[in-house]
């Protein structure tokens, strides 16, 4: 993963935002809006492995039956009984199973510190993988803006918040979540999405920790 220069931060922000979109209900708009071309373009600016993974993700979506994708998405993340890869931090961080626990409140506090407000159209919990990836996008984007503007104080603030997100929240639970997704997925698309998400977030953890 390249250093925290403007181009790297901007590409990583794009990749995080586009990965988040992949965790919404799959539909033809993924292809119609050029999601996978944009995702591959961002990944290719960063790392050969991420680029190869993103290309496989787009190929897997294009080759999949839309109904099979929807069934796999529903079974993996929603249920109907017990989803094998529930996409919420509290499921993976808390000893007591359940949603809206202490870790959920903690991530809401972190969002508030970063000036991140949940969109009114987002009908899920704040520790959903898509929400945490979108917060990571915001922090990377704002750090890039601060770097462009020569605002060292803001750069430091957003870098510190990013480190906390990865140390305390997303970076702590992405590996078991991705492993459960890959093990239980019945489509190549969700196996590839799990692998790309894990590789990207693990690279972000290494970048945030520094040399």
Strand fraction: under 5%
* Average pLDDT number: 92
Shape: globular
Question: Whole-number radius of gyration?
Answer: 17 Å
User: How many strands appear in the DSSP assignment?
Assistant: 0
- Number of DSSP helical runs: 11
For the largest beta-sheet, the strand count, sense and barrel status come to: none
| Corresponding CATH architecture | Orthogonal Bundle
Give an account of the 3D structure:
This protein has helices at about 5-20, 30, 35-45, 50-65, 65-80, 90-95, 100-115, 130-150, 150-170, 170-185, 190-210. With about 210 residues, the chain is mostly helical. The protein has a single domain (about 5-210), classed as TorD-like, CATH 1.10.3480. Helix 1 runs antiparallel to helix 8 (about 130-150). It starts with 5 loop residues before the first helix and ends with a helix.
In short:
With 211 residues, the chain is mostly helical. The protein contains 11 helices and no strands.
């Amino acid at each position: 993963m390249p250093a925290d220069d403007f181009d790297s931060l901007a590409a990583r922000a794009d990749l995080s935002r586009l990965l988040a979109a992949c965790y919404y209900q799959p539909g033809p708009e993924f292809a119609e809006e050029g999601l996978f071309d944009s995702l591959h373009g961002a990944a290719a600016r960063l790392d050969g492995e991420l680029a190869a993974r993103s290309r496989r993700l787009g190929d897997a979506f294009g080759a999949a039956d839309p109904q099979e994708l929807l069934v796999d998405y529903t079974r993996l993340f929603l249920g109907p009984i017990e989803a094998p890869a529930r996409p919420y931090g509290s499921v993976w961080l808390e000893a007591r199973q359940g949603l809206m626990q202490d870790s959920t409140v903690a991530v809401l506090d972190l969002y508030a510190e970063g000036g991140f407000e949940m969109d009114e159209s987002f009908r899920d919990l704040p520790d959903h993988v898509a929400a945490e990836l979108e917060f990571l996008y915001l922090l990377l984007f704002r750090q890039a803006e601060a770097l462009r503007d020569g605002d060292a104080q803001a750069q430091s603030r957003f870098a510190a918040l990013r480190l906390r997100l990865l140390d305390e929240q997303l970076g702590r639970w992405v590996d078991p979540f991705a492993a459960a997704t890959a093990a239980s997925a019945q489509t190549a698309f969700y196996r590839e999405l799990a692998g790309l998400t894990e590789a990207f977030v693990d690279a972000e953890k290494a970048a945030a920790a520094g040399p």
